[in-house]
Every structure is written in structure tokens, then in C-alpha cells.
Amino acid sequence: MISPGELKALIYLLDDNDPEVLSHVESKLLSEGPALIPALEQRWEEEENPAVMQKLEQLIQLLQQSDLAEALGSWYRKDRDNLLDACILLARIQYPGLNPKELNVMLEKIRLDAWIDFREDISPLEKIAILNHTFYQKHGFKGNTNDYHAPDNSFINRVLETHSGNPITLASIYAIVAQRLNLPVFGVNLPQHFVLCYLEETGPETEVSPFAKTQFLNPEHYGQVLFYINPFNQGQIFGRKNIDDFLAELKLEPRPSYYQPCRPVDMVQRMLRNLLYAFTRQKRYDKVETVKNLMRVLEMDDELDDTSDSTGNWNPEQST
Predict the structure, then answer these.
(1) What is the C-alpha separation between 268 and 271, in angstroms, rounded?
(2) What's the pLDDT tens digit per position in 9-19?
(3) What's the rounded Cα separation, in Å, for the pair 291 and 277?
């Protein structure tokens, strides 16, 4: 680890006019890795030279981006069933100081509010009715139709704070809470919209506990799809025919993936596509490059030139 004295000397040289000196200093600081971020932030607070402050900000951002890419790569290799962790990582694109514990408190509040109303021997539809009431009426979650393409709609912390987001982020929060209640609710990667499905419980029933559960269920342990849920439209229940009609409107051939549960990594890749589109629309090219780097981590290299929107708003009632 670099010594305080050496750090002070290197930061002093950030104001040097010689490009070679500046390049060497920046390379040396970046080689220290994310562990240097707190020290650079402290130096930024103490610095009075605006030019040096700007260069420190740039270095901090580069180190944060490197740390984020490494963390997402680790998730992709080792823990890709943990949807919540991936959502938290993506939120660090805009909110690097995010506290995961605060998010977990919010999620547990929703889960417990739903659990209180659960009873024994109720049907899947009744369970979802209770969760819908908790999610949309008690907590006021809704689709953001006023600023649909805003990047904040894709960040779990902001959606939990504002109770407003796009289909896939609302679906992610809904599914995380549902699975903590032991409900087999999973994402469905439908074109131009993202929905959820409820699978048939084929094994022995599991008690829904009041105690915190952070498990992520595996769709392979359950049966066929019983029904679908539209998280962007107050948790509306709909059936397979609605998807048939929607695909017909889009003139798309039905595929099994449009009807079956997808993997968390599919959801995270779709979130990145949405963020790429949102930041490109806003001409925030620094964030565009950050998102592209994360897409490379998730092996999405062939999509880096595609900034088309993939979040489209759809109401099944309008397609029947």
C-alpha cells in the first residue's frame, strides 16, 4: 500500500503540465486498486486546487468502476442465482456508497407486512392477492409512466425509496419478496415487457415463516406455470393467451423462453440493456462506458452497439 507521504507527492504532481509525468502518476495511483479510494476521497476533501480536485474525481470514478466490474464478474462466476446482490451492484453505477443493509430492511418490511396476512391452506391466487395488496396498496409501488426511461427506474435503491420504477426492477423486487415468502415467483423474459410467473408447487408445502429468509428459489424444483403477473400494472393476473395475443401484435413467433421462467442473469443483462439505452438518451457517455464495461463482464460484447429500448410498457388488458 502506498505511504501517505508518497500519496501526497503523487497528488501534487497531478497539476504537472508534462503529459508523461501526469500519465505516470495516474498509472501509479490506479495500480493501487480500489483500496486507495478512501484515501483519495479524503485528499479530495482537503484539496483546494480545482484542477487537482477534478483529476482526483476522475481517478476515484475509474477505481470505483474497476471495483464494480470485478464484483459483478465474481457474482457471474460464483453466485448468479442471487438476484438481490446483482441489483445492488448495478445500483452502484450511480450510487457507489449504497448501503445494502438499508435495502434489506426495506425488503423485510414488505415481506413481513405480507406475511401477517397469510393463512394456512390458501391458494396461489389468494397468496398473490395478499402480496399485491401489500406491495401496491400498503407500500404504493407503481410503474413510472411520467419519466419511463429515467436511469433511476433501474436502480433498486431508488425504486425502493420512490416506490416507482420500470417493469423489470419492479419485477425484481416483487420476486425477491415473494421468494422470501416461499412463493415460486420468477421472471419471464417477454419481448418489450417484463413479467412474472407463478409455478406449480409440486413438492411438500413449506411453512411461511415470520423470520427473515433470504433464499433464492430454483424454478427447476417446481412444476408448470399456473399464471402470470404484471408487476407494472398493480400485479394483474393473466394467462398464456394474453402472451399469445401480445406476441401476435408484435408479429413475433412464439418461443418457449417467452412463456417460461428465466434466470437471474437474464434479468441482469436486460437491466444493463435498459441502462445503456437510458444513459445514451441522456448523452451521459461516462455512464455509457461504465455500462458497456459491465456488459462485457456478462459476455454481452455482441450487443454493445445496440441501444434500443427493451422495457416497453404493456398492459395485458389492452391485448385481449
Answers:
(1) 5
(2) 777 667 666 77
(3) 10
Other Cβ atoms closer than 10 A to 210: 11
Q: Which residues contact 70 (CB under 8 A, 6 or more apart)?
A: 34
Residue 41, pLDDT above cutoff 50 = yes
Between helix 167-180 and helix 264-281 the angle, nearest 10°, is 150
DSSP collapsed to 3 states, the chain: CCCHHHHHHHHHHHHCCCHHHHHHHHHHHHHCCHHHHHHHHHHHHHCCCHHHHHHHHHHHHHHHHHHHHHHHHHHHHHCCCCHHHHHHHHHCCCCCCCCHHHHHHHHHHHHHHHHCCCCCCCCHHHHHHHHHHHHHHHCCCEECCCCCCCHHHHCHHHHHHHCEECHHHHHHHHHHHHHHCCCCEEEECCCCCCEEEEECCCCCCCCCCCCCCCCCCCHHHCCCEEEEEECCCCCEEECHHHHHHHHHHHCCCCCHHHCCCCCHHHHHHHHHHHHHHHHHHCCCHHHHHHHHHHHHHCCCHHHCCCCCCCCCCCCHHHHC
- Residue 197 near residue 261, CB atoms below 8 Å: yes
pLDDT of residue 178: 96
Phi, psi dihedral angles at 226 (to 5 degrees): -90, -45
| 268 within 8 A of 298, measured Cβ to Cβ | yes
Q: Could you tell me the pTM of the whole model?
A: 0.84
> What band does 169 get if pLDDT is binned at 50, 70 and 90?
very high
d(CA 247, CA 312) in angstroms, rounded, equals 13
Residue found by looking up cell 413467433 in the block: 253
180 CB-near residues (< 8 Å, 6+ apart)? 107, 108, 111, 212, 213, 214, 215
Residues 261, 221: Cα–Cα separation, whole Å = 12
Which of 146, 135, 238 lies closest to 193, judged by CA?
238
